[in-house]
Structure formats: structure tokens, C-alpha cells
Design a protein that fits this description.
Oligomer: homotetramer
Number of strands of chain A: 5
Radius of gyration of chain A: 16 Å
Shape of chain A: globular
Strand content of chain A: 25-35%
Helix content of chain A: 10-25%
Distance between the termini of chain A: 33 Å
Number of helices of chain A: 3
Chain lengths: 147, 147, 147, 147
């Protein structure tokens, strides 16, 4: 377990709802939010200097081990959503990210939740986080030029 | 709250993993399981005489309000999975279904979890379950001929 | 180019439309049909004795190289669709499958189209079809017991 | 049929490949490109002053009627892709968009294709394009500040 600085552990990533992500209720399908959270995790790492695609090429995978989600208000096609993503906990072989997905136009909380990610290698065996990984997870977000 | 008979509240629905449902780790993407659970709920209702598409046409929606999932073992392309689905709780305006997703070939538990579904109408307003809905939810699975 | 027997080259695979496959128009999203065709190809091969998952494990991939689709009538949530799949052409390094997706309840043609699939290995290099692959593609559908 | 100015009819929209959009071959699944093209069409319209979500709310839908795609080179997780989108043809009741999807890092053409979109109303009946729609389609892209 490493200490987490709440201020530096938070990153907000904006996504826009795609037409294909809606369902016949006219709102975003509940499974689509898992994709938004995944996008946000990848950006969370990128802003701390880690290209997750490089980890994946090296056989370092943060596989989703647990998900919990509460749906508070529906989002709709073309809404811009801010996925506020925080590192919540670091254990020996897993990390937890917490999320609040907020409609950018009016601040409505649409969905909140958490995912626990286990570090597994290319053989799908559970591994302990390396010191390099822990160091990366403890970084603050860097200033990013452009989008 | 209505009493639930565990024996009659359980239905098993088989799905086969599609190629499109895998990801670059070579295993089923974690969001795909939400689709399997959705398929299983629709079949759970069908085997109790309810065509969910008819409910949806009438503006009766069981919208996903909460999700919790634990991933125990990976499933792979072309695996046959049994989605064991049980009614877990019935409240005034929502129901909970519990799931165990098991690989048919060897009985491995791949994923387990629960979804709470809120009854909302076509205006997305929360509604109390009607006596007819509660009666349907309390039914046992009927014998189905064919697949 | 091998000769194709139209009678033996045809297989019909039934799928049921999932809730997640619809969009806010209340109909099946156009991209969902590609998933149905993929499911049908895998079953087309299975009924000729080929488990595509085994080919994939061996690094034999039939990657989609071309798609053409015409959407004739919308399909809806919970519709049962018959994906009529025929081998259309076999070339040195690719095959073409033709599809008609028909609503089972009333025979309405929803979508028709074709996909060309290129044989590539695990390095994504184009390969010539082996005699064993061509022999498998020329087989007639076997009688399948059960679903 | 209206005349189309090739220079003003072109818009490039960048997307980044999501993890969920890959498959077990380690590359972008072929159906994912339809989602990218859909995103690009929505942005194509936005840069000409049309919010497609507003059209959809009004029952104005540009439904996909035909798709043709050729896959030239695989794209991978985390690749940035430029979806170059051009209005190709305007008919009485439909329009065609043409696409080239290019990997931003090295200019590799990954996929090219076209979609024909039919104008249908909320009853799914085919309609003739209105003068207002034709005027909007003939607009040049406006300068957009920010992303």
C-alpha cells in the first residue's frame, strides 16, 4: 500500500457520446461507460508519462478485476462528458481507480464507480507491481500542451 | 419486498463468445459480460411469459441502476458460457438480479456479479412496480421446447 | 479459383437482436450486422468441421479485407434474424462470403452484403490458402444435432 | 443532384483507438471503423453549423443505407487516426460520404470507404432532402477554435 496524494492523483478526461453508444431508450447504454472509464485510465497514465500501449506490448496488463457502478442520471447522444478519474488505492498486485462521470454542459453527475485492476503478464498470471510502476502511479499529472 | 423462492428464481442461459467481444489481450473484454447479462435477463423474463420487447414498446423499462462485477477467470473466443441468473431482491421500484457466468466446458467460474434495475417509464421517471410485474417476477421458469 | 456448389455452400444461422445492439432510432445499429455476419461465418465453418478458434490459435486468420452492405429494412430489439451465408468465391489468398439477413418472423430482407476475407498469419502477412483450407471450404454442411 | 466543391466538402476528424475496439488479433476490429466514420460525420456537420443531435431530436435521421469498405492496413490500440471525410454525392433523398482513415503518425492509409445515408423521419419513412438540409451540406467548414 502506498500513500496517495488526492490532489495529484486526479485527472479529468473529456469524451463525447457517440451515436453507436446509445440504445433504444434514447440514452447511453450502461456498458458504454466502461469504455469511457477505460479511455480515461489510458489518458490518466499518459499524463503521467506512461503509454499504456507500450506496457501492453511488453506484456504488462492492468486487467479489470472488479467493477462497481452507480448510474445517477442518463447521458445522451453528443453530450460531452468529463470522466474525473482518481487513483484510489494501490495494493501489492492491483490498483483501484475511482470515477465520476459528469455532463460538461451542466455538471450533472451521470455515473460514478470504481474499477480494480490487477497486474497480469502475457500469460495472464498475477504479478506484483514493480517499483517502476508504483513510481509512475504516484506521479502528478504533467501539463499537456494541445488536446 | 416480496419473498423469493431460490429454486424457481433461477434460469441458465447459454451464450457463445463472439470474435468481436475479445480484445488484444486475447480474452473477452470486460464490458462484454454486461451484454451477456442483458441477454440473460431478457431470456429470464421470456421463460416466465414476459417479452421484454413488449414492455419496452409500452414504455416499461428496467434500466440498469447499479452494477457490481468480479472477474474470476478469463473467457475466450468461441467459449460457451452459461449465464446463471437469479432474482435476488424485489423492492418497491427496483429489482436485483445476481449472476454467475460459468464456462460450459469445464465449469470454471469466469465472472460473478449483480445488477440493480430500476423501473422507469418512457419519460425516464422512476415508477413503482405494478402488481402484474411483481406477479411475473415471482413465476417459475416454464418448460421450453426447443432452444 | 475453385468451383463452388451453391447448394452445399449455404448455411443459415439464427441470431436474436440484443438490447445493446440498438440505437436511439429504436432500431439495430448498422454496425451490429457485421457482428452477426462474423457469428455466421464462424458457424458456417463449424458445420463443416472447422473450429475457427483453433485456426486462430494456430495463427490462421481470415481477416476482413472488404465489406459491402445494403440495408433494406430495419431490424428491432429481440427480432430473430436468419443470417443466410454462402461461400461466394475462393481466390488464391482470399475468400468471399455473401449474406442475406432475413427477419425470421416474416421473411423480410433486412440487410444483404458480402465480405472478402484475406488469409493472414500471426505476423499479419498475406498467405495463400492451403489445400487443407480449400478442402474444408468446399465441404457441405454436416447434419448438426441440437442447436 | 447538387454540385459539390471538393475543397469545401472535406473535413478531417481525429480519433484515438480505444482498447475495447481491438480484438484478439491485436488490431482494430473491422466493425470499429464504422463507429469512427459515424463520429466523423457528426463532426463534419458540426463544423458546418449543424448539430446532428438536434436533427435527431426533430426526427431528422440520416440512416446508413449502404456501406463499402476496404481495409488496407491494420490500426492498433492507441493509434491516432485521421478520418478524412468528404461529401461525395447529394441525391434527392440521400447523400454519400467518402472516407479515408489514415494513421496520423506515419500517414499510412488504414481503411477507405463510403456510406450512403438516406433521409428518413421518425416513422422511418424515406423523405426528400429539404432546401435547408441541402444548403447546410453545401457549406464549407468553418474555422473552429479549440478542439
Amino acid at each position: 500500500v502506498i500513500p496517495i496524494d488526492p490532489a495529484s492523483s486526479r485527472t479529468s478526461v473529456r469524451v463525447r457520446v457517440r451515436f453507436a453508444e446509445t440504445d433504444l431508450m434514447g440514452i447511453v447504454h450502461h456498458a458504454s461507460y466502461l469504455a469511457y472509464m477505460e479511455v480515461a485510465r489510458v489518458e490518466w497514465l499518459r499524463r503521467r508519462g506512461v503509454t499504456y500501449a507500450t506496457w501492453a506490448d511488453q506484456g504488462i496488463h492492468l486487467a479489470v478485476a472488479e467493477v462497481s457502478l452507480k448510474y445517477r442520471a442518463p447521458a445522451r447522444f453528443d453530450d460531452e462528458l468529463d470522466v474525473e478519474t482518481s487513483l484510489g488505492e494501490v495494493r501489492a498486485a492491483s490498483v483501484r481507480f475511482d470515477y465520476r462521470i459528469v455532463r460538461a454542459a451542466d455538471g450533472t453527475l451521470c455515473t460514478e464507480g470504481a474499477t480494480r485492476l490487477a497486474y497480469i503478464d502475457h500469460t495472464l498470471s498475477l504479478r506484483r507491481l514493480s517499483p517502476e510502476m508504483i513510481e509512475a502511479l504516484a506521479r502528478a499529472e504533467r501539463v499537456i500542451a494541445g488536446s
